[in-house]
Amino acid sequence: QVQLVESGGGLVQAGGSLRLSCAASGSIFSINRMGWYRRAPGKQRELVATITSGGSTNYANSVKARFTISRDNAKNTVYLQMNSLKPEDTAVYYCNAGRLVASTSYDYWGQGTQVTVSS
User: Fold this and answer.
1) Cα 117 from Cα 35, distance rounded (Å)
2) Angle of CA points 69, 74, 80, to nearest 5°
3) How far apart, in whole angstroms, are the C-alpha atoms of residue 24 and residue 75?
């Protein structure tokens, strides 16, 4: 099992910045990717950014050049630096971790942290 604890959400004005953190604990040795997803009111959950254990990153087109995902392997923590925030970034942001064990993939989710961007 993997436990994920997010922090760093809050209320910010448009154009501002926030940094989300997600600390992983438990069976972290086989985590091969981590990422952030978000769910806006009335919408489905969508991918924001992912990072593999090798450091490869992937971003949703809507956040490219504004958001940066990174990880600190020593702290088992992944970060999401969000700059130039827009009202449409308002959502609950969820941390995700993926483990690959004996060819079977497992997904774990954090409890979510609210990000609200005011216009």
Assistant:
1) 21
2) 15
3) 8
Structure tokens at 26: 């438990």
Could you give phi then psi for residue 78, rounded to 5 degrees? -115, 145
Beta 113-118 vs 10-13: how paired, if at all? parallel
Tokens in use for 96?
Answer: 């995700």
Half-sphere exposure of 77 (CA within 13 A, CB side): 15
> What gap in Å lies between CA 20 and CA 54, rounded to an integer?
21
Number of neighbours of residue 92 by Cβ within 10 angstroms = 18
* Residue pLDDT, tens place only, 58-92: 999 999 999 999 999 888 899 999 999 999 999 99
Angle, CA 7 vertex, CA 49 and CA 78 arms, to 5°:
40
